[in-house]
Specification:
Helix 1 (about 1-25) packs antiparallel against helix 4 (about 80-120) and helix 2 (about 30-50) runs antiparallel to helix 3. The chain has helices spanning about 1-25, 30-50, 55-70, 80-120. It has about 130 residues and is mainly alpha-helical.
Length: about 130
């Protein structure tokens, strides 16, 4: 899950950074405000992408998603982009958790098979579920 979330944050940092000149030129936002708000969010997204192995960074990324969503009201068109990235974030979390659960189940199954082989249990690789000849 953490890898997918980190990738979403890197792409989000790029898009947030590209929103700064748009806000300044098209919307007339003060450059110090645009650079401070969205520049800070872009830097935070890059930092949080590298820190996704920590649980607190994952929760801070949720706060970053909310901040990007709320700050996007300052620039027309940015709301659509913010909704897309928040959606990508939610999908990355959901699918990432599913992948983590599948990997954990696979590792547990492989560990139990290895334990059975070591204790003299039936060899699973030779067992066949197809038709057998007599």
């Amino acid at each position: 899950m953490r890898v997918v979330c980190a990738v979403v944050l890197v792409f989000e940092a790029i898009v947030i950074g590209l929103a700064i000149p748009i806000a300044i030129q098209l919307e007339g936002v003060d450059p110090s405000i645009a650079g401070g708000v969205w520049g800070g969010m872009a830097v935070a997204a890059l930092l949080l992408s590298g820190l996704q192995r920590h649980t607190w960074a994952h929760y801070a990324s949720w706060a970053l998603q909310a901040a990007f969503l709320f700050s996007s009201f300052m620039v027309s068109g940015a709301l659509l982009v913010a909704v897309v990235f928040v959606s990508l974030w939610v999908i990355a979390v959901i699918l990432g958790r599913r992948v983590d659960e599948t990997r954990a189940a696979h590792a547990a199954r492989a560990e139990s098979v290895a334990g059975e082989d070591a204790s003299g249990g039936e060899d699973v690789s030779t067992a066949s579920s197809g038709p057998q000849t007599r």
